[in-house]
C-alpha cells in the first residue's frame, strides 16, 4: 500500500512538470508566432505603431517640456523680496535711517539700501544703454530699499508686510518681486493638470485603438479559433496569442513614441541653447534618458496588454463551435 502511494505521488509530480513545460512552450510559441504575424503585415503594423506612438508621444513630450521649464524656473526661485521705491524728496541719509528702522522688525530679515546712483550704474551695465543714460541731465531712478522677509514667513504674511511697508512715510511704491514667479508657478500647475487630462484621454484612445486592432485579428482567425475549441482548447489557450499580439503592438508604439520625443527634443535643442546663451545661461533641454525610454516601452506594452485583454474577453465568448 505504501509503495503504491509513493508511486502515485511520483506520477503526480511528473504530470505537473509536464503541464508546466507545455504551458511554457505554448507561451514561447505564441510570442514568436504573434511577433511573426505582426512583422509580416508591414504596412498595417507600421501605421498602428505610428498611431499609438503619436498618441503616447504628445502627452509625454508636453510633460518633458514642463519638466524642463520647471527646472529652468527653479534657478529663478529665491526668498520673496520686497522692493520699496522711495519718494524723490527723501534724502539718502533719510533712506538709510528708514532702512535701519525697518530692519528692527521681527518679520524682516535684512534691508539693503540702494542709492539712485548705484541703481543707475547697475541699470546701465545690464541694459547696454550706458551712452544714452549718460546723456540724461537728471537721474530718473529713485532710491531703493530691498527688504527680505524673515525666513519661514508665510505668503499671506509677506503680502501683509508689503501692504504695511507701502503705507510707510517716504515710500512711493512697494513691489513684491515674487508675484510674477507665483503667477508662473500657477500657470505651470494648470499646464500640468491639462497635460495629465490629455494624457488620460489619449491613453484611453490607445486602448481603444489596440482593442479594435485585436478584434480585427480575432475575426480574421475565427475559423482557426473554432477548430481549436473543437479539439478541446480552453479560452486561456486561445487568448494567449492575441495578448502577445497586443503586447508587441504596445511595445512598437512605445518605441515610436520614444523616438518621436527624442527627435523633437534634438530638433529644438540647438535653438533653445542659442536662446539661453543670449541670456548668459548654459541651460539645455533634458531628454527622456534611458529610463524614460524604457518606461515608455513598458507603458506601451501594458496598454497593449490591456487593450488586447478587453478585446479578447469581449469577442472570444462570441466564437463557439456550432
UniProtKB/TrEMBL annotation:
<dbReference type="GO" id="GO:0032153">
    <property type="term" value="C:cell division site"/>
</dbReference>
<keyword id="KW-0132">Cell division</keyword>
<feature type="domain" description="FtsX extracellular">
    <location>
        <begin position="81"/>
        <end position="173"/>
    </location>
</feature>
<keyword id="KW-0812">Transmembrane</keyword>
<keyword id="KW-1003">Cell membrane</keyword>
<dbReference type="InterPro" id="IPR047590">
    <property type="entry name" value="FtsX_proteobact-type"/>
</dbReference>
<feature type="transmembrane region" description="Helical">
    <location>
        <begin position="247"/>
        <end position="268"/>
    </location>
</feature>
<comment type="subunit">
    <text>Forms a membrane-associated complex with FtsE.</text>
</comment>
<keyword id="KW-1133">Transmembrane helix</keyword>
<keyword id="KW-0472">Membrane</keyword>
<comment type="similarity">
    <text>Belongs to the ABC-4 integral membrane protein family. FtsX subfamily.</text>
</comment>
<keyword id="KW-0131">Cell cycle</keyword>
<keyword id="KW-0997">Cell inner membrane</keyword>
<dbReference type="Pfam" id="PF02687">
    <property type="entry name" value="FtsX"/>
</dbReference>
<feature type="domain" description="ABC3 transporter permease C-terminal">
    <location>
        <begin position="198"/>
        <end position="312"/>
    </location>
</feature>
<dbReference type="InterPro" id="IPR040690">
    <property type="entry name" value="FtsX_ECD"/>
</dbReference>
<feature type="transmembrane region" description="Helical">
    <location>
        <begin position="46"/>
        <end position="66"/>
    </location>
</feature>
<dbReference type="InterPro" id="IPR004513">
    <property type="entry name" value="FtsX"/>
</dbReference>
<comment type="function">
    <text>Part of the ABC transporter FtsEX involved in cellular division.</text>
</comment>
<dbReference type="GO" id="GO:0005886">
    <property type="term" value="C:plasma membrane"/>
</dbReference>
<protein>
    <recommendedName>
        <fullName>Cell division protein FtsX</fullName>
    </recommendedName>
</protein>
<feature type="transmembrane region" description="Helical">
    <location>
        <begin position="194"/>
        <end position="214"/>
    </location>
</feature>
<dbReference type="InterPro" id="IPR003838">
    <property type="entry name" value="ABC3_permease_C"/>
</dbReference>
<dbReference type="GO" id="GO:0051301">
    <property type="term" value="P:cell division"/>
</dbReference>
<feature type="transmembrane region" description="Helical">
    <location>
        <begin position="288"/>
        <end position="312"/>
    </location>
</feature>
<dbReference type="Pfam" id="PF18075">
    <property type="entry name" value="FtsX_ECD"/>
</dbReference>
